[in-house]
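Incident log, structure service

09:12 report received: a user says their structure output differs between two submissions of the same chain.
09:20 pulled the input from the user's history:
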Amino acid sequence: MKLCFNQATTLENSNLDKDLKYCETHGYDYIEIRTMDKLPEYLKERSIDELAEFFNTNHIKPLAFNALVFFNNRDEVGYKAIIDEFKKMMVMAEKLGVKYVVAVPLVTEDKILKEDIKKSCVEVLKELSEIAKPYGVKIAVEFVGHPQCTVNTFGQAYDIVDTVNRNNVGLVLDCFHFHAMGSNLEDLKKADGSKIFILHIDDTEDFPIGFLTDQDRVWPGHGAIDLDSILSTLKEIGYSDVVSVELFRPEYYELDAEEAIKTAKETTIQVISKYFALQTV
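09:34 re-ran on a clean worker, output below:
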């Protein structure tokens, strides 16, 4: 299994330049690039060609653009904006060698029927699949374990991806989100491991289902998530690709960025190595 760094882990105490430097130093294989903030910040002073050259001359490579946000159940203007944004991502992804775009479902206070959520998700994902095909990029849908997210359990997300039935459309399994809305381990056991594209590793303080927020995340192995069951199940269903550490902990933003990146790797290895061999440099 390869090791990846998600830039949310140093969201407030670093930038893309620093993240790349420290991740290269500490032997990460991949990075998930935040397209909402860290990439635009980088491109104010540098070019996409400079970023491509960095990846061409270093070990670390770009795994994913994170993220295409709120892709489903949009009005006409919002839908067009999503398609336009995705097309721009494809151009940059091709230049950089990005493998995936993480797609996040709509978060809303509005009550939407599950059948309407599924219908919209399937329609949009099929369109994105066609757009992505010539670029060789895959779409990784990330369900979000909050009550206000339209797709908030593994089972619901897997059903959508299974219905889409495209080789370039799969899932992100984030351990925090899996735990936060009480996703069913039996659903994971029945899943096709090839439909899971990215594993996000993290942990959390022990709050009840429905009350957890991203800031409750802690280092892998330092919280209440049953990571052993998730990881052992992933191994059983044949997943062994990439583990990406993603935390949003305010206290960790007060650390030096290099210390956070180093600790993220160490804690991830401690948890993952019981089930998978990490192929890091």
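09:41 both user submissions now match this output. Likely a transient worker issue. Closing.
09:42 reviewer note: The mean pLDDT is 97. The two ends are 12 Å apart (CA to CA).
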